[in-house]
Amino acid sequence: MCETRLKKALSVAATTIGLSAAFWPLILWYLRRLTDGGDEPLGLAVLGLLALVIFKDRHLPRRPHLVAAAVCFLLYLISGFYLPPMLRSLPAIACLMFYFGYQNRPSCLALMLLSLPLVASLQFYLGYPMRLFSAEVSRWLVLPFVQEITREGTNLTAFGKVVGVDPPCSGVRILWMGLVVTNVIASLKRMPWHSTVLFNLLAMVLLLLTNSLRAALLFAPECGFLEISDTLHAATGLLCYLGAVIILIKVASWQSAVSRTRLVS
Question: Which parts pass through the membrane (predicted)?
Fold first, then answer.
């Protein structure tokens, strides 16, 4: 029995070392992105959360799927000729998920994806559309109180005052942090694939609306109609974010209770 376990442990160790060597270019790329001055070091915090999630679920059964892992590994090798590191990391992550038997833990997959240096790319591709969305929803939220408000691009205008939804206020960072928390909650509740997907979609909608509500609440101070301290300005965004997290926790608890009731009945 001990000899069998030893052989299995050596086999896993040898394969892990081999995969680490194969993924070494990606590891170097990831380490370089950690020091480029962006928000990317936050990915390490996500990896820390992922480690805690895996440690908590270490006694749950896992079923490695070696054929799927081999296919993903082959795709990773082929992608090295055509794709940039960010996209090459997708088959590499899928390979690890199948090899270690975490393919039925969608929240772990989501946390691995969120640990990638995504924030700068999300700002580049989604920043402006999200600013437009926040500006338009904010206009509708403010409209019952200020009927003269208009929107042009990402700028809101009322009484000759112009307030812009600037790039730092796009909500990309709130969306990223919110999805990290969402998938930690999904992992703690051990949500299956379909529930995790729906839960993430709900979180995205809720976080987008949260950023719009924050912009609407800060419209009067930004226009100069109301003076608030910098602390209250920052606290407004934090309270909106915490409100969204509380709603997500309530929804996850409700979904978990419904699932238990169905199992009992």
Answer: 12-31, 37-55, 67-87, 107-128, 197-220, 232-252
